[in-house]
Amino acid sequence: xxxxxxxxxxxxxxxxxxxxxxxxxxxxxxxxxxxxxxxxxxxxxxxxxxxxxxxxxxxxxxxxxxxxxxxxxxxxxxxxxxxxxxxxxxxxxxxxxxxxxxxxxxxxxxxxxxxxxxxxxxxxxxxxxxxxxxxxxxxxxxxxxxxxxxxxxxxxxxxxxxxxxxxxxxxxxxxxxxxxxxxxxxxxxxxxxxxxxxxxxxxxxxxxxxxxxxxxxxxxxxxxxxxxxxxxxxxxxxxxxxxxxxxxxxxxxxxxxxxxxxxxxxxxxxxxxxxxxxxxxxxxxxxxxxxxxxxxxxxxxxxxxxxxxxxxxxxxxxxxxxxxxx
Length: 326
Known about the structure:
Layout: E1 2-9, E2 13-19, E3 25-32, H1 41-58, E4 62-70, E5 74-75, E6 80-81, H2 96-104, E7 108-112, H3 113-124, E8 132-138, E9 142-148, E10 151-152, H4 184-187, H5 189-200, H6 218-226, H7 230-254, E11 258-262, H8 264-268, H9 273-283, H10 286-290, E12 293-297, H11 301-319
Parallel strand pairs: 1-4, 4-7, 8-11, 11-12
Antiparallel strand pairs: 1-2, 2-3, 5-6, 8-9, 9-10
């Protein structure tokens, strides 16, 4: 049976596996990105890809290609990771596509991890059958992907879908990108925790004070808000409003059939979707808002591996002149 070798490179873990053309993950495993005593990120990735190739051969699977999703913007044509890689800065400028292709001896497609998730959902998941949708991955950072008319919108230099750096507050919190008031600076996990620490430095009486500052997580903030903590509730409301402002801009600018929210922060926001809808409605045209669904989708590492495989399948179809079903 033909299958696709796939890898998702994250700041914490690397997931590698083999996926059937129907989107079934035949097998997969995770490795700590910088763990295992096997050197750096690239060495770990190549070692895991070698393991997957050996297992595929033992299982009688014929690998037709490889898809790799990575954090940061990617020059698709050059197969090179761009300069803006916050979580894995050592990969900036790396021609990873050619490195992987030489190691695996397989045709390889490299792209941003959020683009991989987007194509995976378009081909196999919640985006299947939709003519247009946007995916936002809310976790350690904020990734985004846009799927319109059967194709992924990458933009002129690969920055298409970078909604995490849309401005939601002109004089707002500083962002690693050098700007201020970016969506990421309010809704990404580390930034939610940072806002809590900043609030605790100025106010007392919060249950969050019982948690050591360096151990404070977004989960603590959402749990405290659910328990009625005023400081945490204000932070969560700010998260909802910032997200709603960005979603309103997406609704007005693209008017997609659906916006898919995924990632750890999105899951924590499930109980606050009324507030997210309220603020999205406040910032969007009423008719555009009514025609766009907001969907919270739970994903696993298997989902990201499936997305990386979808990257290869999508590009193979596109280069053959086949438009994906919409």
